[in-house]
Amino acid sequence: MKALVLLQPGRLAIEEREAPEPGPGEVQVRIVNGGICGSDIHYFLHGGFGTVRMRSPMVLGHEIAGIVERVGAGVTAVREGQRVAVNPSLPCGKCGYCRAGAERQCSDMRFMGSAMRVPHVDGGFRELVVCTQAQAVPVGDAISLAEAAVCEPLSVCLHAVDQAPELSGKRVLVSGFGPIGALTLLAARQAGAEEIAVADIAAGPLALAETLGASAVHDVSDPAALDAKKADRGAFDVVFECAGHPSSVQQAIEVTKPGGTIVQVGMLPDMVQLALNPLVTKEIAYKGTFRFDREFNRAAELIGGRTIDVRPIISDTFSYREAAAAFASAQDRRKSIKVMLDFA
Q: Which class for 183: exposed (0-12), middle (13-18), buried (19 or more C-beta within 10 A)?
């Protein structure tokens, strides 16, 4: 098979690799589409993020979908020829977190396209992937496999929405409108939010937010853009902070109502300086959210039936042979939200 390998930051190569064979309980999936994630871009540009760094070449990609090519002994959940989204998480199932039902916190997680372990866990930017039958989640025949590849990031956003209180009838702000912000808007709407405003610093994402039905958009490249929402100690019941920037967190604290909730979706630097007294005096709940668990299967159902239509966030599709151009496009926030690779 062919695999798209990150040799070192900024240097991608297509290599011939031995095709992985499915063992008992496993399936071999021929990958058709893979979405470029923000973490893939961090690996491509910097060799990692935070303390996580590449120590050897690796295959990126964890937003993937394809067609079941072969099944191993004992597989009953899927069949050859079935179209599936691949869940990139493989928790150990044995540690205390897994036994408690919090598999996303697994002490021995194997996550596709990650350098957190040594040797690294290769991702899905290759022609063939082997996974457990539970990781191969059917998506039906009504959608494209590019849409199916959005199951992973939508799962992240469904889990984020689950960290908030009941959203029915609530006023919500999504701060930061990249792929995760856009999918958080769709997930919050599906959860019944009455109004969903969006804040970002770029015109392209804000235009997409309007297309997706945001009740209002705020260009926060102007520091005064949300001043009206700070009146009377805040305007929003729930803020999803998706930008991962300290200034966006500070703004979220200022525009959240007393008794409201901020869900921290974007990853922040390890050390940030914030004015936190309003968080205390307004009794705001500040919650983190990380990856997903059972939301992946729910995402497959919602996308597969187009209850949540992810087509508007797919900006462009490139052949994996044009990976350099695809990664360049994915970094251009003026025109790109979700860029897909095509392995067909």
A: buried
